[in-house]
Amino acid sequence: MDKEGKMTKNLLKLPIEEKERFFDSFDMVQTDCDGVLWLLGEPFDGVERSIRALRTNGKRVVFVSNNSVRTMEDYRAKLYKLTDHTVDDEDVIHPAKIVIQYLRERKFDDALCYVIGSTNFKNCLREAGIQIIDGPDEPVPEAIKAVAAVINDGQPVKAVIVDFDYNMNNIKLLRAQLYLQHDALFIAGAMDTVLPVGRMRLIGPGCYVEVLEKIADRKPIVLGKPGREMSKMLKQRYAIDNPRRVLFVGDQPEMDVQFGHISNYQTLLVGTGGVKEDDLKQLASTPSMVPDYYIDSFAGLEQFVRDVMVYKARNGEKSGP
User: Fold this and answer.
1) How far apart are CA 111 and CA 109, in angstroms?
2) Is 165 one of the annotated active-site residues of the chain?
3) Which of 67, 91, 188, 264 is most buried (most C-beta within 10 Å)?
4) What is d(CA 294, CA 157) in angstroms, rounded to the nearest whole number?
């Protein structure tokens, strides 16, 4: 059930009249990538046909990921195959892009930032002209004097930025803690506490953020899903006046569905990330994680669009609101 007490609806099981009303109720699709369009880099069968069906029938498709580890070259290569080589870089969003936009808008892009993140995340900031320091990635001597010299370095850091870091370690958290105690801005990118990778569930960057929140007694500005600030910036970026005319598609209730609800978008959960239709009843106590609609896979949207188009053709209608 959602926050209004309604049950999540299986999109492909709706009566055709309701399918048509739903199809006409949105103009833009914002979709997650990992677990929705592909898994471990391998695209799910049929995804390209669904994207084509949506676009052909008037829907703008934007790709909103929490993964700044993946390079734009990698996103571009994967999405070109799924979109008939018509993807625009402006329609591919991940936290590093939003962080850069946020810092620039606040004239903060010439300030020194301490960054915990992947190589690509940090490269994105550097290429945008953001001054950053990072590390250490190598072990330090196990002596308090040696540790203190690294973490209490007196650098004029104005912002601490935290995202996923393959080489996360305790010294980085200690450095971040001290900078935050000196009133540095606290920015978080991806907030996933768990990263589903196949059958594995790995520690996500949200865990690092939670540690720093507790020890520094600070709340971060969240510039990844499900952050309100990210939501505001996407609405500004795409000139979204009526958020109800946006459909957000994702595979994780905690990140994607919550982000959709925070944004006042309509929400569609796909089952390819591990959360199936039968699992939704377990989310009833957390309405913000209950999607409006469910479908087994993004590829199933092709059949949904085809059903609506056939119905419209029989009734002499045009697609769109």
Assistant:
1) 6
2) no
3) 188
4) 44
Q: Is residue 279 annotated as a catalytic residue, yes or no?
A: no
Name the residue ranges covered by the structural domains of the chain.
96-222, 244-293
- Say what the pLDDT of residue 285 is: 85
Mean pLDDT of the chain: 93
> Looking at the predicted structure, is the pLDDT value of residue 3 above 80?
no
Class of domain 96-222: alpha beta
**38-42, 124-128, 159-163: which has the minimum mean pLDDT?**
38-42
Contact predicate 259/248, CB 8 Å:
yes
Alpha carbons 299 and 51: distance in angstroms, whole number:
8
Q: Single out the residue of 183, 264, 199, 270 nearest to residue 226, CA to CA.
A: 264
Sequence ranges of the binding site for substrate: 65-67, 225
Which residues, 6 or more positions from 15, have their beta carbon under 8 angstroms from its beta carbon? none
Average pLDDT over residues 61-66: 97
In this prediction the pTM is 0.92
Spatial CA neighbour of 262 closest among 234, 239, 294, 297: 234
**What tens digit of pLDDT does each residue of 216-241 get?**
999 999 999 999 999 999 999 999 99
| Residue 161 bridge partners (DSSP) | 115, 187
C-alpha pair distances (Å), 61 with each of 82, 92, 146, 239, 279: 12, 10, 51, 14, 27
Annotated binding residues for Mg(2+), as ranges? 32, 34, 251
Catalytic residue among 2, 24, 27, 34: 34
Catalytic-labelled residue, pool 2, 27, 32, 88? 32
Type and span of the H or E element at 306 = helix 301-314
Tokens 């029989």, residue located: 314
pLDDT, one tens digit per residue, over 179-209 is 999 989 999 999 999 887 767 788 999 999 9
